[in-house]
Design goal:
InterPro entries: CsoSCA_cat (IPR048539). By secondary structure, the protein is an alpha/beta fold. The protein contains 11 helices and 11 strands. It folds into 2 domains: 1-41 and 232-351, Carboxysome Shell Carbonic Anhydrase, C-terminal domain (60s Ribosomal Protein L30, Chain: A, 2-Layer Sandwich); 43-224, Beta-carbonic Anhydrase, Chain A, CATH 3.40.1050. The protein has helices spanning 8-26, 29-41, 58-62, 84-99, 128-145, 182-186, 188-195, 201-224, 263-278, 300-323, 325-328; strands at 45-51, 69-74, 104-112, 152-160, 165-169, 174-176, 236-240, 252-255, 287-295, 331-339, 344-347. The strands form 2 sheets. A 6-stranded mixed sheet has the order 2-1-3-4-5-6. The mean pLDDT is 91.
Length: 351
């Protein structure tokens, strides 16, 4: 559904419906059963580092159940494991997986377009080489932090947004799933093992469903002949975590609460939204600033999430007001918390 030129009130209603539909689908018995069955056969914990761009929807592109891949999203897909909060959060997830006897596969993604360079990652001025280099630097940090690749394997993956196609990177070669012939596709397990000879057998076994699912998805995309959309039309500035439901292209600029310097990406996002208004790509009657923080349990954990969300909102609102007072006057604010086990977004009183 295209909402970029709709009135801001219609956009807000649409957003609430989108979050509600995602929650209802996530908790449906069908999805619960799919997750249980999938993880029984493929126990590896999968963590994905990716850009905020709504086109990078890995469960959809690999045809695996929602909730299997644990996402970290940030503007430009830029991360540094030296960031204190990010490092602590990652360590908690890795430790929880290891305590369950599960190895961890980390997908470090960057994105680009084969059809038009300008459909690439705006965080890197659509420079594929720069985006890939950033992903490799993050991979090096993972190897430094977790040198035993038997338990944690960081894999650099390109994501070609015209076809939602994965590009797997080995140390010297790559495997572009969109370029594989029918014969190569029939040999996919062998080719993956050749590309990643140091990947443990269990991790290879649990990577292969993503490869096979992506090959099927690419074939369907070619039949569907989706028209790629290169135009920035974002009308939301999101800060925090819990935006899995927002896999809608060119809608939201999502800033994870990871970097010690949150003001810079907030200013960058505000500038993009202001330019979208000036260029007529979105309605100029308002934009949304949405903060969110996840929690696992009712009680103090939920209350702390509400405090986090309030802080992030207030911080971002002040940055926008200082950076572009005219844009700030068009700001509509919402705070939310997300019950992570059910992906239920709860809206706080309107600001």
């Amino acid at each position: 559904m295209t909402m970029h030129l709709a009135p801001i009130t219609d956009k807000l209603n649409w957003l609430q419906q989108l979050a509600s539909h995602y929650h209802q689908d996530f908790i449906s018995e069908q999805q619960r059963q799919l997750r249980r069955q999938y993880q029984a056969f493929h126990p590896t914990a999968i963590i994905a580092f990716k850009c905020m761009d709504g086109r990078i929807h890995l469960p959809h592109a690999t045809r695996i159940p929602t909730g299997v891949i644990q996402p970290f999203r940030n503007l430009g897909g830029i991360f540094d494991l030296g960031w204190p909060y990010l490092g602590d959060l990652l360590a908690e997830q890795v430790q929880a997986a290891w305590q369950q006897g599960r190895p961890v596969l980390v997908l470090i993604s960057y994105h680009f377009s084969k059809g038009n360079k300008q459909r690439g990652c705006a965080g890197f001025d659509c420079d594929r080489a720069a985006a890939e280099q950033q992903a490799r630097l993050l991979q090096q940090q993972f190897r430094q932090l977790y040198p035993n690749q038997h338990w944690l394997y960081p894999l650099v993956c390109g994501f070609e947004t015209d076809l939602d196609a994965l590009v797997l990177h080995g140390s010297e070669q790559q495997l572009d799933l969109a370029s594989m012939s029918a014969l190569q596709q029939s040999r996919a397990p062998e080719l993956v093992r050749q590309l990643l000879p140091d990947m443990p057998a269990q991790l290879v076994q649990d990577l292969l469903p993503l490869v096979q699912g992506n090959l099927a998805h690419i074939a369907a995309m070619r039949q569907h002949r989706r028209q790629p959309d290169s135009e920035h039309r974002e009308w939301m500035l999101c800060i925090g975590r819990g935006f899995d439901f927002l896999h809608v292209p060119n809608t939201a600029l999502i800033i994870g609460p990871f970097s010690p310097d949150l003001a810079q990406p907030i200013r960058q996002a505000a500038a993009i939204i202001a330019e979208n208004m000036r260029a007529g790509r979105i309605a100029d009657d308002g934009f949304l600033l949405l903060s969110s923080a996840p929690y696992q349990q009712l009680g103090p954990d939920q209350a702390r999430a509400a405090l986090k969300s309030a802080f992030l909102y207030q911080f971002a609102a002040k940055v926008v007001a200082d950076f572009d007072p005219a844009l700030a006057k068009k700001m509509h604010g919402r705070q939310a918390t997300l019950h992570w086990p059910e992906r239920a977004l709860y809206w706080q009183p309107q600001l």
